[in-house]
């Protein structure tokens, strides 16, 4: 079969070439939007988060039978349009738990202990720290929106810091009882949290889940950590909120110069272990497609639930 991979790095190319011998493989460093100039008879396409699967792209892929995204999030894909055509779609759910959760706490610790500021000063022979008084996480209430792989790992790390945990999620997971998490409705989590971490996918139901109407329920000095999707927070709030925002995603890059925003460029997933899991899970999905088996990470159920 003809299989095209977009947004690929050299190690990904080598990996898939080794494990998909006998298939006709095409590799592009660019997004599908940049690289796909005309109609192509690819049977399967693999993309990452910066490729936007639009109607225009689908028209250029008349032979497409299977599309995979090498990411957990799938808001860049028109799942409804794909499933109406009877096509298969998959993601790599579960790969990013340790990477994203640990990175979320690294952002949080930078906010509460000012470590990056202190390190930069010391490099300039400035050892002043009287203005860098920190805040302990021990005993604070950690609020988590979403208890999937990432949210659950956030809860485990929070417990290690001695934090109390409250959480909101669509379904109650076993980890709630295992860790003694206070499982609440959304408003209760917003009201109780000293630290609020977002670990939700972006869907019509979760877009602007923190908005002008419910933001006033948050504590005045709450620290918000968002390593999920920028659009979970209503755009206008990025320009108005005065509390600390630790962000690996944002709705608009124009806000990152604000003094209360600590921003990194969507790199929370970027560890050697997570990248290996992405390739391995993507390979398992691709092999299942080629063998006519059920996809391990088929998105059909999620799409029906989230978009209908």
Protein described:
With 308 residues, the protein is an alpha/beta fold. It has twelve helices and twelve strands. It has helices at residues 10-19, 32-35, 55-59, 79-84, 97-113, 115-123, 149-160, 174-179, 186-192, 235-238, 272-291, 300-307, and strands at 2-5, 24-27, 44-47, 66-69, 88-90, 141-145, 164-168, 182-183, 195-198, 223-226, 245-247, 261-263. The chain has a seven-stranded parallel sheet, with helices on both faces. It has a five-stranded parallel sheet with strand order 2-1-3-4-5.
Secondary structure: elements and pairs:
Layout: E1 2-5, H1 10-19, E2 24-27, H2 32-35, E3 44-47, H3 55-59, E4 66-69, H4 79-84, E5 88-90, H5 97-113, H6 115-123, E6 141-145, H7 149-160, E7 164-168, H8 174-179, E8 182-183, H9 186-192, E9 195-198, E10 223-226, H10 235-238, E11 245-247, E12 261-263, H11 272-291, H12 300-307
